[in-house]
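ARCHIVE CARD
Drawer: 12
Card no.: 0347
Subject: one protein chain, sequence and derived structure
Cross-reference: see card 0346
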Amino acid sequence: MTLKDVSSENQQVLTEQNVVEYLRTHSDFFINHEYLLKEIKLPHQSGKAISLAERQVHVFREQRDDLQHELTDLIDIAKQNDQFFDKSKRLLMNLLEAQSLDEVMIVVEDSVHNDFGLKFCSMLLFGDKVEYPVSNVQMVSPLEAEATLGALTESKKAVCGRFTEEQLACLFPAAQGGVVSAAIIPLRGNDLQGMFSLGSDDENYFESNMGSLFLTYISDTLSRLLPPLLQREKAATKAEDIATLL
């Protein structure tokens, strides 16, 4: 079928759409009429008309530049991930040596401040303050946590971004309003529920679309380390109470 056939068949004037459809169904058209490629002229940003071949070269160069930028971005992300992995590894290795909740918080705060360069971190556990009278770990009742933090208490993965002033005040009571973006990492164990939080005074530091792979590693490690330490604290408290009665 020829272009003439297309026009006669539809009994109408040949339109651009007819040409488009014809060329789509006859992909070898320019192979048989290669001389036309040299005659086709296209507008250019400079205002000067260029040939189709020149336009193709220009498009290829733009695609190449875009791919180079994407590759550069991927390399930068890979470097950042390597650095984050090294910092996370050091933190986890040091946590394995901690013998008490006090030591856990010392290790965490040192890593957060010196390795990650963040000003704020906190650990919030859901439980009875009387049973676990630890000084450097916040302890709130599950009902109080749910009332303030809402759906965050049920999250099974790290949540990053910006949160309400009430939520941030609950998570970072010592920050005095200095936290504007945060990563909230759930802690889940047999007898453990809580949150480990990292905070920044930069509202763009923690974004909602951030990856959470390394944060999940930290969560898994703390979720396994904390229960036996909490039980040790609880047992020590009971022993002190009994000794006091005697």
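Annotation on reverse: Residues 96-245 form a domain with the Beta-Lactamase fold (CATH 3.30.450.40). The CA atoms of residues 110 and 230 lie 21 Å apart.
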